[in-house]
Structure formats: structure tokens, C-alpha cells
Amino acid sequence: MTGASSGIGAATAVELAGRGAAVALLARRQDRLAAVAERIRAGGGTAEIVELDVTDADVVAAAVETVVRRLGRLDTVVNNAGVMLLGGFESAPPQEWERMVSVNLTGLLHVTRAALPYLNKAAEQPPRQVADIVNISSMAGRKAFPSGGVYNATKFAVGAFSESLRQEVTSRHIRVSVVEPGVVATELASHNRPEVQAALSGQFADLETLRPEDVADLIGYVVTCPRHVAINEVLLRPTAQVF
Ligand code: NDP
Predict the structure, then answer these.
(1) Residue 177 · residue 232 · CB < 8 Å
(2) Domain at 7-230, CATH from 1.25.40.20, 3.30.450.40, 3.40.50.720, 3.30.420.40
(3) Is the CB of residue 69 less than 8 Å from the CB of residue 107?
(4) N- to C-terminal Cα distance for the chain?
(5) Which of 23, 89, 144, 205 has the most CB within a 10 Å radius?
(6) Is the per-residue pLDDT at 201 higher than 90?
(7) Could you say which DSSP state residue 211 is in?
(8) How confident is the model at residue 204 (pLDDT cuts 50, 70, 90)?
(9) By C-alpha distance, which of 163, 162, 77 is closest to 116?
(10) For residue 80, which of 242, 204, 223, 209 has the smallest C-alpha distance?
(11) Cα–Cα distances in Å, from 177 out to 107, 132, 187?
(12) Distance 138 CA to ligand 1 centre (A)
């Protein structure tokens, strides 16, 4: 589980542990991962913490090996780590584009590549004989909007890559699923520049947003479907979200 230190990732780790999975929690903030692990262990679950910056291919490869060494196998990957840095294209610093591309897209590719040899093995072996890759895209991966151009581009790319990969691996019983949430109450927008945050504030003030647990519940369902059922794409919005 990448990006397990907060928001959707933390909630999904708790959800999957509750469904009986031994969960590896990966992200950069160790203190936050420790809190999630403690919660899982307090509920009787199994959680391992592995520090990870998804932008570094060597670090990713080592982290995936550590996960397999500690937990014995890898049969489900949730590519959730992401950043959303908004703002008009002309005024946005190029470093923000680069960060979104390297986390949301290249990071997801690094993790997927490192995990596939183990997912192949898991898909061949009992008890499940199926493996899962869940890629967290966004409603922004279906619909572009002003001030979201590079974020949109990364999430559209996640959708395109996921469909191509699905066609390559699905006959081996590796399922590839894309989950596309609308607005979820998390820390995601808090990493924006102050002027962008000011412009965003109030935009969804009256909206009853999704909670991270709503997305986690869906992911839990997706990865526990019977072996012959693959849920390849799900768009979920808060009911009152119009766009
Ligand atoms: P959060 O900001 O709470 O979570 C983002 C996670 O990504 C954190 O755990 C963070 O961990 C991790 N992360 C960021 N950069 C890196 C990195 N370089 N290496 C490893 N991990 C990293 O936001 P959300 O829970 O909302 O976001 C999760 C996913 O959901 C993202 O992909 C986002 O695009 C997507 N999404 C969110 C929506 C929303 O409305 N909130 C809507 C649609 C999609 P750390 O900083 O500890 O490394």
C-alpha cells in the first residue's frame, strides 16, 4: 500500500487488514506510518512499515523486496501515493509539474514493475491464485479542468497505462483496477501554494465529500472479489458532486 501514511491510503490499509490481509505500509513519513500500524495491530492485524519514496526506482525495488522478505508474499498492490498541485498553467512552477509526474505516474510505474514478478508468483499459487493491482486515479483522470492540467495529465496517463497493462497480464490472473474518486476529505489539497489554497478554499465548502473510508471500502471489495471477477474501473463521487 503506497501512500499509507494518510488519507485514502491509511484508511485502505486499515480496511484490508480488517479483511485479513497482512499489510505493508509504505510512504515517507515514518511517524504517520507508525500510527497506522499501531491501529492495525491494536485490532489484531498484521502491519509492516517500509520507508519509501516512490520517485526513486532503486529505493522502490529494495522496498518491494523488503515487503516480500517480511511478509512472505505479495499479492495485492495499491498504487495510491499521489500529489495534486493545482494552479493556472502559466503561473505554476515547473517543479510542481515534475513532482506530480514523478510521483503520480513514474512512481506508480516503478512500484508496478518491481511488484510484478511477485504478483505473477502469487497469481499461480494457492490460496488465492489471483493477484491485484489497484491504481488510484481520480475523477480528474476522466475529466480535465482549468488549473488542473498536469494533475489531469498524470491521472489520464494512469488510466491509459492501467488498461494497457490489464490487457498484458489479465490472462495470468493478475487483475488491474482503476479507482477514480471525486472529492475526498484528505490532506491532498494542503500541499498547494497559499494562493492556490486560497482560491480553492470554499469551492467544496457545502459539499458532503467522500470520506477516505468510503474509498477504502470500495477497494476492499474490489480485491476480494471471486477469482473470475475483475472490476477494472470504478468512478465514485460524493452524491451531491455535480462535476
Ligand atoms: P493524502 O495527501 O492524504 O495522501 C497522499 C499520500 O501520498 C501520502 O500518504 C503521502 O505520504 C504519499 N506520497 C506523496 N509523495 C510521495 C512520495 N514521493 N513517495 C511515497 N509516497 C508519497 O491524499 P489522498 O489520500 O487524498 O491521496 C491519495 C490518492 O488519492 C492520490 O493519488 C490522489 O491523487 C488520489 N485522489 C484523491 C482525491 C481527493 O479528493 N482527496 C480525489 C481523487 C483521487 P508521505 O508524504 O508520507 O510520503
Answers:
(1) yes
(2) 3.40.50.720
(3) no
(4) 29
(5) 23
(6) no
(7) P
(8) confident
(9) 77
(10) 223
(11) 17, 8, 24
(12) 11
How does the average pLDDT of the chain come out, rounded?
A: 97
* Catalytic status, residue 118: no
Is the CB of 80 within 6 Å of ligand 1?
Answer: yes
What's the 228 CA to ligand 1 centre distance in angstroms? 30
- Which entry of 151, 156, 169, 178 is annotated as an active-site residue? 151
**Which residue has a Cα nearest atom 18 of ligand 1?**
53
For the ranges 11-15, 79-83, 199-203, the lowest mean pLDDT is seen at 199-203
- For residue 22, the model assigns a pLDDT of 98
pLDDT number for residue 128: 95
> DSSP H helical segments within 46-85, as ranges?
57-71
The H or E element spanning position 194 is helix 194-200
Assess whether pLDDT exceeds 90 at residue 17.
yes
Buried (b) or exposed (e) across 91-123, using 16+ Cβ within 10 A? ebeeebbebbbbbbbbbbbbbbebbbebbeebb
Cell of 222: 474490489
